[in-house]
Amino acid sequence: MTKFVLTITPTDKIHVSFLQRKNKILKFSVHYTARVNKRWISVIRYDTAHKFWRIPHKHLFYIKKKPVIIFEKEQNYNTLFTKAYEDIKKNYQKYKENYLTNK
């Protein structure tokens, strides 16, 4: 399993983990965390990492609402892994704002 953390700002990080064989992603997690009120919190996570539930999906977290799970139409893990990473890098500020305002 390959793992790394991309520090976007001192209070924003993307945690990436994936298992790859022969240029094919077998499972992955791309997880954006932010430091809010002196705590690191989950804001959004794309993954395939549940034991019995390998359907690609994303979790959207909110400060005062229950998390929302959205199943992805794209089933190609390589394509979705790239999409997830690029989406979070590009839109992390929007996701953080949505977390804080419960949108």
UniProtKB/TrEMBL annotation:
It comes from the Bacteria. Residues 3-102 form the DUF7718 domain. This is DUF7718 domain-containing protein.
